[in-house]
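Example 4.3 (complexes with small molecules)
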Amino acid sequence: MSGPSGDGGGLRLRLEREFAGTELARNLERTFEAEPLEPIGPADYGRYGRRDLLVTRHKGSFIKPCPATLNYNCCNLTIFHFGLGCTIGCRYCILEAYLGTEALVLFGNVEEGLLELTETLAKPSGARPKRFCTGEFTDSLLLDKRSGLAESLVRIFAEGREAVLELKTKTDHIDHLLHLEHGGRTVFSFSVNSPSICAGEEKGAAPLKARLAAARRAAEKGFPVGLHFDPLIIHPGWEDGYAETCRMIGEYLDGAEVAWISLGCFRYLPSLKSVMLARHPDTSIYDGEFIVGGDGKMRYPRPLRTRMYRHLAGELRRALPGSQAVIYMCMESPRVWLDVFGRDPATEGLAAMLDERALSLAGRSS
Ligand code: SF4
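Answer. The structure with iron/sulfur cluster bound is encoded below.
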């Protein structure tokens, strides 16, 4: 596969003129030579390809609720939307079917977003969310060494009140942030998988050991760490593979350092399969049995999902004995919650558990 690497090397920066001289542009121009871009909107993104990094205006709010789905429990994260697209190239990435472009987009007016965020965090406790993330439509840290955005975010949350920022990544690009004062209010979260899925289906990501080593470095600087097993994929030897990753987590991290661990079985929009099989005919992750879920996405049948979650939850408890980390399922049904954990917290209960964990790690009570 040719194209930009997982850290954004080899990209062509295209900058709308109104953003020349902004902090974001100055940071990016340390690496890339900017070419001018006429003003464009989301409908135009599809004209650009995987080598393009577009800096353009975002219209509307930078702060969005997670796009939850009816019938499934959601963790109620709030998204700080700074851009979209990703060059890591995971062979299951839902963005491929969703965005309609392979270009990377960063919002040149992100300073307006930071202001909106600061104002949101200044609201009274009951009127603002407790947990924010940036990695819903891209990888939080993919280009961060070049864009410098996360530093501003870490500082805003460190100075702010009871709210936590989660930076989610499959990279190990964290070292430029480790010197920052964070007040326990930035969580570095690493998406992990079995060793063979990491090596075969996430080729542009940091190797699994590098992600866990980065988690270790973050923990040593006092940052809470999150882990996301998403997507859990059926593949030959999956039980042993996931057990091995859990064992490695226990080697690299102490349970007290881990804020939460999410589990989510592979799910995809039906249109993704043909795109991915055309690009990666050797992948077998779309083989096997899928059903159409209540959200229109393809999912493994419920008994299989339940089996996977039980296996992972058991291995994680063994790897991190006594940990207060919240182990939860991302977008799962009340029935699966009952079968795996013996209770259904519903969206409100799940969000409350995670809020409490976040704020306790930030040294504050909820
Ligand atoms: S790292 Fe995340 S956003 Fe990037 S390709 Fe993989 S799944 Fe998609």
